[in-house]
Design a protein that fits this description.
522 residues; D-Maltodextrin-Binding Protein, domain 2; Dipeptide-binding Protein, domain 1; six-stranded mixed beta sheet; 21 strands; SBP_5_CS
Length: 522
């Protein structure tokens, strides 16, 4: 297929420079302020939020395969634990927790005043049912998160004991994510649970039009009710980012996720932006099936692909300069990130890339498929990558498709060699590692197994404190750089734009917007 990306990328780079110059000349005219609005909240308001993906049309925390689905789940499902803005584990449905002296069990004390949306009581039996469902459901995508949980004992109605097959210092953080989202046991057999979730969170789903809108209403029986929060939420699914941003300016939406390359435009128009997360673990990357295509099983070939990528050009030309080029999945300064990264790890070097292909037995290149969802930011990056790969002799079958088909092809049917997107991050590095780098990981469909990675991952889980765990994860991250297990492009930010009446939209460590406490002023 013909490539026009060189012209596009050059034009985008020029546009980025021009935009920067324009902003410099207009300094002070557009605030882009993230200051929270004053005034009384309207407890009967409806929040209309624009989202750029439909979450795969599956909102079951156990079986969902879309990495962006938590944004739809957080209003509905409380978790056993939560993470504060610094990424520290704090209580939620579990009021306290205690590891045994040998680290082989974790005992949780649960809240007593919680009911699910269908009236079912939340208790230790509910926790046991949820953990066992996550471990045994044939379609579960969170099995790796719960791999160290061997059995679950109900001690009393408000106490549950998780028995482990190995120490896991990350388990409370893991239970602050999808693995800790509590589904009503009564609803687990509902045939429509994937579209009509039943949790114990502050909002319940009242209607779901797949691919169009998910409607939520405040759950008045919530144990920690914020009476000033909006009464209703409408999650509007709009794939076109320009339409989403324009809808905020015309008050058709109250808030929306936007792309990194829209930040300058939003600021120049004076549109408010949510404060970025103190720590964001989101990363733009190329996911690889490192077994399906024989070429991609060779680390020299994967290194050649990495060397072909113009990370700086993609960042500046296509991502608004808001994505820090990187060769690892963890952002600079994050406690799990390797500090031993070669200076040339993010440099483009097509000459060396061609040499590596020759050494690997592919002097004339090879064929591979590369997919992206049918959203402009992702398809533009995919086109740029395809052209950069072709410069070193690789023939790329570019596949631009809708999210459900893409994820099915890559994760389930395993018929796609690679796709580019954002990993939104995770509250704990163990989840990133288990999802992307372990042979059982959902985003390691080729089941590549590098023993050193598996060993360091186990050590990272077993560490009793962050300092001990950091040593293991930093070493693991270095191995993934050396082995080119997937191809990180840049550490990303996932911004949110909003009107002047919206307040209370935080961004989490995992770069997910949590709408449970959003208020709209009168």
């Amino acid at each position: 297929m013909p490539r026009t990306q060189n012209r596009f990328l050059r034009g985008a780079l020029i546009g980025a420079v021009a935009s920067t110059m324009m902003l410099a000349g207009c300094a002070g005219t557009g605030s882009g302020s993230s200051g929270e609005p004053k005034g009384a909240a309207d407890p009967n308001a409806t929040l209309r939020f624009g989202y750029g993906t439909d979450g795969g049309k599956n909102y079951d925390p156990v079986t969902a395969a879309n990495q962006f689905v938590p944004g739809f789940l957080l209003p509905v499902y409380d978790r056993l634990f939560d993470l504060d803005e610094d990424g520290k584990v704090v209580p939620m449905l579990a009021e306290s927790s205690e590891y045994s002296a040998d680290g082989l069990s974790l005992t949780l004390k649960l809240r007593k005043d919680v009911k699910f949306h269908d009236g079912t009581a939340f208790n230790a039996d509910a926790v046991k049912a949820n953990i066992e469902r996550g471990k045994t459901n044939a379609k579960s995508t969170i099995k790796p998160d719960l791999a160290t949980v061997e059995t679950v004992d109900v001690v009393d109605p408000q106490t549950v004991k998780l028995n482990l097959n190995a120490p896991n210092g990350a388990l409370t953080a893991i239970l602050a994510d999808r693995a800790g989202m509590m589904v009503s046991p009564t609803a687990m057999s509902n045939p429509d649970l994937d579209l009509m979730p039943v949790g114990a969170g502050p909002y319940k789903v009242t209607a779901d039009d797949p691919g169009v809108k998910v409607s939520y209403e405040r759950f008045e029986g919530y144990y920690n009710l914020n009476k000033n929060a909006v009464k209703k939420i409408e999650m509007m699914i709009q794939l076109d980012p320009e339409t989403r941003l324009r809808s905020v300016t015309t008050n058709e939406l109250d808030a929306t996720s936007i792309n990194m390359n829209q930040l300058d435009s939003a600021k120049n128009q004076g549109i408010r932006l949510a404060d970025p997360a103190k720590v964001s673990t989101a990363t733009y990357l190329v996911y690889l099936n490192m077994s399906r295509n024989p070429a991609l099983a060779n680390p020299k070939v994967r290194e050649a692909l990495s060397l072909a990528i113009d990370r700086s050009g993609i960042n500046k030309g296509l991502l608004g300069g808001a994505c820090d080029p990187t060769a690892q999945m963890f952002p600079k300064g994050y406690w799990a990130a390797s500090t031993d990264v070669p200076k040339d790890a993010i440099a483009q070097d097509t000459k060396k890339a061609k040499t590596l292909l020759t050494e690997a037995g592919y002097p004339d290149g090879f064929e591979m498929s590369l997919a992206a969802i049918n959203v402009q930011q992702y398809s533009n990056v995919a086109e740029a990558l395809a052209e950069q790969f072709e410069k070193i002799g690789i023939k790329v079958d570019l596949q631009i498709t809708e999210p459900v088909q893409l994820l099915g092809n890559f994760n389930a049917q395993k018929v796609t060699d690679a796709y580019t997107s954002v990993w939104p991050g995770a509250g704990d590095p163990s989840r990133t590692v288990s999802s992307l780098y372990l042979p059982t990981g959902l985003f390691n469909p080729g089941a590549l197994d590098i023993p050193e990675v598996t060993k360091l991952a186990a050590e990272g889980l077993a560490g009793k404190d962050q300092a001990a765990r950091a040593k293991s994860y930093q070493a693991l991250s270095k191995v993934t750089i050396e082995q080119h297990m997937h191809l990180p492009i840049c550490s990303a930010s996932l911004p949110t734009a909003m009107t002047d009446k919206v307040r209370g939209i935080p961004s989490t460590v995992a770069s997910v917007v949590d709408l449970r406490n959003v208020e709209i002023t009168k």
